Amino acid sequence: MKNVKTLALAATAVAAISGNAFAADRTDLHGTDYKWMQFNAMYSIGEKPDNPASGDQHNYLEMEFGGRSGVFDLYGYVDIFNLANENSKDGDKNPGSGTSKLFMKFAPRVSIDALTGKDLSFGPIQEVYFSTLFNWDGLNGEGVNSTFWGVGADVNVPWLGKTGMNLYGFYDMNAKEWNGYQFSANWFKPFYFFDNKSFLSFQGYIDYQFGADEDKTAFVPKTSNGGNIFFGLYWHSDRYALGYGLKGFKDVYLLEDGAGALALESTGWSHYLSATYKF
């Protein structure tokens, strides 16, 4: 396994670069607190990885949430698949398929700026974080039980604006070992406003794993790098949203495309349709 000293060096570099930053006004840590929650009715076509023998389509309900409280920044969601528990010739979440009905992502970050009371911003870097990410799918042992630890920042990217970026070390909770890294980025860019104050947004994310150990002898062979990217076009009002997303996969979850006994497809494109109600 590749060691994770790179992350420690990255944290040291951030501190060194920011050492002369001016102190920010942190007298009211909760002065800019906020929170949000929404429910998304989703339909996925072509999601990877999938078994070509069982199809690749399913519906699901997503509870998505986030916010800021003092030093903590949070994003997360919980997905419940195949709501009516129905069988479908194209469904990859059919009853009896052995797949989990649940997936959860939980991504808390701690602001180093807020924690130290100093303004660590420089150039396009707006705020620096200690970042974590947890993925669970509801299965013990053989399911998705992974966690990521590293550093992150809010970065001002031309046109996109504030973009969250994080560099993590990956820890497999099933295998109890560190194995490579992940770079993640996410954005939300309103770009066209209507007279009724609704708007169109370009939103999406990138998750890219690299530096992992290959395992060509596994039941589902593993590669050293892979990931996914999501491009979404959404209409938003104060209470509702409708959207379409195009998602690209390349050996996602480090599963080698078409290899092994199951010959899972882990590379390709998928489509997502969503309808949202905001609380």
UniProtKB/TrEMBL annotation:
Which domain of life does this protein belong to?
Answer: Bacteria
Q: Tell me the leader sequence span.
A: 1-23
| Gene3D superfamilies noted in UniProt | Nucleoside-specific channel-forming protein, Tsx-like
**Keyword RNA-binding recorded:** no
Question: Per UniProt, what is one Pfam family of this protein?
Answer: Channel_Tsx
Where is this gene product found? Cell outer membrane
**Keyword Transcription found:** no
Q: Which UniProt keywords apply?
A: Cell outer membrane, Membrane, Signal
Which InterPro entries does the UniProt record give? Answer: Channel_Tsx, Channel_Tsx-like, Channel_Tsx-like_sf
Q: Which family does it belong to?
A: Belongs to the nucleoside-specific channel-forming outer membrane porin (Tsx) (TC 1.B.10) family.
Return the protein name.
Outer membrane protein OmpK
**Originating organism:** Shewanella vaxholmensis
